[in-house]
Amino acid sequence: MGGDISFFTFTAPNYILAALTYTMLGRFVLSFLFADKPDVVIYKVFVQITDPVVKAVRFVTPAMVPLPLVLVLSLFWLTAARVALFLVNRVLGIGPTGIT
């Protein structure tokens, strides 16, 4: 039973980070498609979901950096967080160990 719980401690955060990463990628693509129509519902949903991450990255990014680049930086930091999560869990011995 302990193995299931320790595996869940990796899987749940990884799933959340993956969902945010792909949603951020969707926002990045939609920002070009709906640049002149910011009131499109699907774009608004993507913005609402990803705004906390973008605001956190914007806080540590200089103000002169344009929004599309902040979105790319957000993608980078979300991916880096997933890699760090994997490495920390691997070092602690509670992450996935491969097919057994």
Structure characterization notes:
The protein has one domain (2-92). The longest helix is centred in the N-terminal third of the chain and has 32 residues, at 2-33. Helix 1 (2-33) packs antiparallel against helix 3 and helix 2 packs across helix 3 (67-92). It has three helices and no strands. With 100 residues, the protein is mostly helical.
Question: Could you write a compact summary of the structure shown?
Answer:
The chain has helices spanning 2-33, 41-60, 67-92.
Helix-strand layout with pairing:
Blueprint lengths: L1 H32 L7 H20 L6 H26 L8
Overall shape: elongated
Percentage of residues in strands: under 5%
Written as H for each helix and E for each strand, in order along the chain, the element string is: HHH
Secondary-structure class: mainly alpha
Q: Return the domain count.
A: 1
